[in-house]
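Reviewer 2 asked us to include a model.

Predict the structure of this chain.
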Amino acid sequence: MNALKDLTFLKTSQISTDPEILKDYGKDWTRYYTPNPIAVLFPQTTKEVQEIIFWARKNKIALVPSGGRTGLSGGAVAQNGEVVISLSKMNQILKFDELNLSISCQAGVITEALQDFATQNGYHFPVDFAARGSSQIGGNIATNVGGLNVIHYGLMRDWVLSLTVVTGQGEILNLNNGLIKNNTGYDLRQLFIGSEGTLGIITEATLKITPPPQKASIVILGLQDYMHIQNIFVQFRRHLTLFAFEMFTDKALDYVLKSHTHLKPPFQKNYPYYILAEVETANEHEEQELLAVYEDCFQSGFILDGVISQSQQQAEDFWKYRDFISESLSPMTPYKNDISVKISDIPNFIREIDIVLKKEYPHYEVVWFGHIGDGNLHINILKPPSLRTQEFVISCQRVDEILFSTIQKFQGSISAEHGVGLSKKPFLHFTKSKQEIQIMKEIKKVFDPDNILNPGKIFD
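Predicted model (structure tokens):
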């Protein structure tokens, strides 16, 4: 492409048209979109990102921002001849500020690297999820990730003090300057959090950190009936300090055990549903309180079996039952729905959706898991080996209409933490009103008047 010759402000090593690189950087974990970018650019500074946007505006070239590409909604897919901007070379931690309890970094820093840096300095960055080893901070912010500890620590949004962003006009915005209190009109920082790269490209961030948590224990519980999940959650939350409250089914656990043969089943018997809870046990009183709550749930018939971690290694192994689910399902090319409803609606919602899925997917295997503590459920429909991917996706999208109608009935969300992207775009109206969508489109025009930033994502 002739326009690539104008990228003289980048080094040759920062521009790639290698077919394998294009294929890799043009997709995310959805797997069922065909990547077709014309180039991948690797800026190293905010200024270079700005120059790329000026270049793209001049040449009318669409840009797709790329982080760790761990998203599950097609938000980082380049399938229409776009140029991908990878932030992977912008991976420096810039400043540790103990007085202000913050870390400043470039957008391409890996989540786990930031977590480790905080730990090495005696602090904790609590936004955590299974893709921590490959996801990047900029992508986490652009999709407002939730993860495993939302119940205690909140979403990514709650940990962002300030942002440096390059808009679709090429303007560099420094938003909030790391302030805790700043009551001066509209907080534009919040617009870019969760915007999926459609308003601007996040290049730097200042993030809050916190003192490390006290000692915690991991509890695995076996249940016969998902209707008891709510009762267990209420008891645990009322009497204990909860860091996480996760649910997964026997099918999910079975895939994990088959693909990670070094793991042993948590119990001698199998149960239809499992709860994993992370609970603070910093002293003897909290340990005794945990035992009392466990015993009460057992006596009430809410749980049939349970085990509490007795060592750090056992706690880490217990988390693997949950962490490894997505990885274990990946070979089956799952069609994923990442949805949320109010916690109080979860039992009735599961009952209604289970009826729909059994009726509409009689020959498909469906695997459930989710962050019950914040109302987030993940539904994974597994592709039969004999079925072509495109046929499979079309059949799943047809059923999405029914699924999302039920979500709308419960006033829930069609996307809890992976964004809208390409896969949820046709169904945005099930969560957002016409008025909201129109306002979102008008906001997009202000920051990206030429529609060059991640076009076709969220809405057309």
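The mean pLDDT is 95. Residues 389-409 form the longest helix (21 residues). We have added this to the supplementary material.
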